[in-house]
Amino acid sequence: MRKVRFHTHGGPGALRLDEVPEPVPGAGEVLLRTEVAGVSRTVLPVLRGVGEVPLPASPGGGVVGRVVALGPGVDGLRVGQRVGGIAAEPYAELAVASPALLTPVPEQVGAADALGLVHGGLVALAALRVGRCEEGESVLVTAAAGGVGHLIVQLAKTLGAARVVAAVGSPEKAGFLRSLGADEVVSYQDTDWGGPVDLVLEGAGGEILPRALAALVPFGRLVTLAGSGGTLDAGAVLRSAATVTGLSMGRLARHRPAVLAEIRAELWRLLADGRVRPVSTVHPLERAAEAVALLESRANLGKVVLATAPTTPALTPA
Fold this sequence. Notes:
Blueprint (H helix, E strand, L loop, with lengths): L1 E5 L8 E5 L10 E10 L3 H5 L13 E10 L11 E6 L6 E4 L4 E3 L6 H20 L7 E5 L6 H10 L4 E6 L5 H6 L4 E4 L9 E6 L5 H7 L1 E9 L9 H7 L2 E4 L2 H7 L1 H16 L7 E5 L3 H9 L6 E5 L11
Parallel strand pairs: 8-9, 8-11, 9-10, 11-12, 12-13, 14-15
Antiparallel strand pairs: 1-2, 3-4, 3-6, 3-15, 4-5, 5-7
Helix pairs in contact: 2-3, 2-8, 7-8
């Protein structure tokens, strides 16, 4: 089967398409024939050797596919079932995954759209729920044009936010974000992000994190979901009287599985009603390096996706 791997550390150019033996699911695992795999920024440090991953290696991330085999001891899933979630090495025609990280996917939903919801959409709506987004409030979203951020923009409006401010690295993304419902678009280079907001959903990390805190009204709320981290000054938090919450999807899955089940069900309803629209840029498996380079340059609009098998066409930016 075909699988994207890297044999040396470097940038996106280190990725190559290999022919490898088909994997076999072990105890408590399932084997998926993948339709699409999600490309996220977490692949970039791994490519450059952070974490000392043994070589050759293949990136992990979101996946949508169909169950083709069950390992010993697997209950609750069946061969032929369509599912989506997270897999250790989904940049391949076949991938092994844990049932605990998968959820059923409706047959009528395009693969890229489904991936947008089971991965980015889950994070987006969980962040808004953790942040207690209320009708009539103002919301700031950083990394707003990315796979998670563009869904937060839409979902915030769906939940009744009166003002949604989208913060991005490039002003060229303003038209895209306004088409999704953003009331204002600011760039990280702007010294003024407009009036303060009630809630910030912070996905950029680094030097943007303290600016996100400063954008809050007194007693505002900040939810951080950036895997790249960042540092907040304790004095600044005290002076703002803000509530700062970290969003860990792993902890939610382990300790609040019922909450995630409710969020998943709500997302499928919103998609069916046309109230949320995942946007994807889809690349074939053999162009994985190009897909990762697009993400590295932050030029993407919405989710970057690898098509590992023929899929229903995804929605793409106009």
